[in-house]
Amino acid sequence: EPEVTQTPSHQVTQMGQEVILRCVPISNHLYFYWYRQILGQKVEFLVSFYNNEISEKSEIFDDQFSVERPDGSNFTLKIRSTKLEDSAMYFCASIDSGTSGFYEQYFGPGTRLTVT
Amino acid sequence: QKEVEQNSGPLSVPEGAIASLNCTYSDRGSQSFFWYRQYSGKSPELIMFIYSNGDKEDGRFTAQLNKASQYVSLLIRDSQPSDSATYLCAGRNDYKLSFGAGTTVTVRA
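Predict the joint structure of the above. Result:
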């Protein structure tokens, strides 16, 4: 069964460093997302991406964040200058063209980011 | 702020019993609702979705939606120890999901 994959599974970085989190969405999917979950808190929407551009972003997704689809398979989240409060699980998700009409989102296994 | 609220839990049920999870939402523009199961340290796993008023059954799971009351629920019948997890309710508006904080369920053997 196709699945969303993410690398690395765990990233440790120092405050102020740049990190890039990588995702490979399911191959025929067209909409891509990043969510984050701080330990013990709810899953929060960061950004959605469609047709090679951001379609929506949350207040969390400030100028320190960027997303890119550098080729036909990868989808990346970059944090330019990490802060302690960026420590969280980051989940990538994707949905298909919506042919089912219900837009079920499938989540990758996540990247645990630890900022020290 | 488009909120999704879930009953706080934790919820402890004996094996074989019914676990009942509730969720309310404030965004009337939400088009469909999803229940995810999340084990500790893992990603959310889709259990089922519902978009029309009424009940929807899938195996041991039944989702209920009442748009007038802005209420969604999930029933887990014949609960098994493997059902012990945190259950997340999410509402979809356009293409993004808004999640509740989750209800942790423990099934006692």
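The two ends of chain A are 37 Å apart (CA to CA).
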